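Every protein is a chain of amino acids, and every chain bends into a shape of its own. The fold becomes a row of whole numbers, each drawn from a learned catalogue of backbone shapes. The protein below has been through that process, and both of its lines are reproduced in full.
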Amino acid sequence: MTETSETDREKAEQIEAGRLLFRRSWGFVTSVAQLEQLPPEDLVEVAFAGRSNVGKSSLINAITGVKGLARTSNTPGRTQMLNYFGAPESPVALVDMPGYGYAQAPKSLVDAWTDLVFSYLRGRARLRRVFVLIDSRHGIKDNDTEVMGLLDRAAVNYQIVLTKIDKIKVPQAARMREATLEKIAKRPAAHPFVIETSSDKGIGIAEMRAEINTIGTL
């Protein structure tokens, strides 16, 4: 068997394992507004972070196959707590983090959410990866860079996920991918691969499921 065919076989197996993980009945577990409310660290955790309206809730719904599991809204900052999702016998929990970069929320609320998120990132031993979602139409912005800097300092592994990839043309998507890889190349906690997704078209969903399954079983 050639190296290429072996790699293809392994990828197919990972895709299938991810599909099976998300055939389970995924549902809401709990919301956390304060650190003392965090559930026991029985499971591996993967978290989703991103600017408000980046498509975070839509991506979680697409991955789990449960419409409306993570609420979507046109109002920035609606996700005000850490929201946990799980499934029976799943080795991994999904954590929807508050969106950042919102302008309509009061500063006191923004500060409280920020403190919660930063404390969670620094202190959660079984947090294995944070998916940092970037709108492919706009690329990495200043507050995305700030969040990546925090993750680097906290030594929390993170991976860039480009969302809404169907909204741009193929050449533009290729340029965005290369520009993103260049920006994260020297960041110590950044995963070296970028995943391109579209919740509407199903692009990258199988790859996200496979990645989450792999993280959960390591």
About this structure: The chain has six helices and seven strands.
